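During the first year of the project, the team set up a workflow for recording each protein of interest as an amino acid sequence followed immediately by a discrete structure-token representation. This format lets reviewers and collaborators read both layers of information side by side without switching files. As required by the reporting guidelines, we include two representative entries from the current panel. The first entry is reproduced here exactly as it appears in our internal archive.
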Amino acid sequence: KVDLHSFVHSLRKESSSSGVKISLLHPGMCSTPFYDELDFQPKNAPGHASDPEDIAKTVAFVLRAPPSTVYEEISITPQKEAIEKKRRMS
């Protein structure tokens, strides 16, 4: 995460004079198929995973920023972020 943060921060500084905006979005646990092939998933209870629509709304918010504004870094996490191991079918 530190390397990615440094890269994005440097890229943002380099591109600022060209009008290109660079933002880093950190989505936490989210209810998506990302976890289908993994041995863990967000806990199956309300509040333990963000809704993909919330992530999409945040991206839209960033894209609608005024020309002079850059949202450099945003973290989105569910209120009660927790994981659970998946049960393996034998």
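The second entry, processed by the same pipeline in the following quarter, appears below.
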Amino acid sequence: FGPWDPHNFVFAALSALGRRRPFEAGGDVVSPTYVPDLAHVTLDLLIDGATGLWHLANPGEISWAALAQ
């Protein structure tokens, strides 16, 4: 998710809650990645000349419901 994308879960949750409208979110556990964080670590890998396959994700996990809260 990112601040420039109006088509993601966080934007939808903030929009609904900001308008005081109901918003339903599941309890399944996810590990959302913030796009600016992903871009920064990708640029660091490029600058360092890293090669190979990398798994890039933010640490931890959270449910969709907790993320909306």
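For the second entry, the following points were noted during internal review. The first strand starts at residue 29 and ends at 30. The first helix runs from residue 9 to 18. Both points are flagged for discussion at the upcoming steering committee meeting.
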